[in-house]
Specification:
By secondary structure, the protein is mainly alpha-helical. The chain contains four helices and no strands. The chain has helices at 3-17, 25-37, 42-63, 71-74. Helix 1 (3-17) packs across helix 2 (25-37) and helix 2 (25-37) packs antiparallel against helix 3. The longest helix has 22 residues, at 42-63. The chain is globular. InterPro entries: Sda, Sda_sf. It comes from Falsibacillus albus.
Length: 75
């Protein structure tokens, strides 16, 4: 994993452990792409993927679209 992405991950992990996730969506996606590209552990990739899904669901709750969501909208 390139050094910038690794550093972003470390900062995110520290914040996540303190109850804060301050990374922008683009940064989370960069970490996910780098993890897949570098074939990091499946557990790590799932952890990042869960963060992406959590953010998507939070956005849907805030804008009210979760109430009318079908299974296809969530994938």
């Amino acid at each position: 994993m390139d050094k910038d992405v690794y550093q972003i991950y470390i900062e995110w992990w520290r914040g996540r452990n303190m109850g804060m996730s301050s990374l922008k969506d683009e940064e989370i996606l960069r970490i996910y792409a780098a993890a897949k590209k570098n074939r990091l552990s499946e557990e790590f990739i799932v952890l990042i993927w869960n963060e992406i899904i959590k953010r998507k669901l939070e956005d849907m709750v805030l804008d009210g679209s979760l109430e009318n969501a079908s299974e296809e909208n969530l994938v």
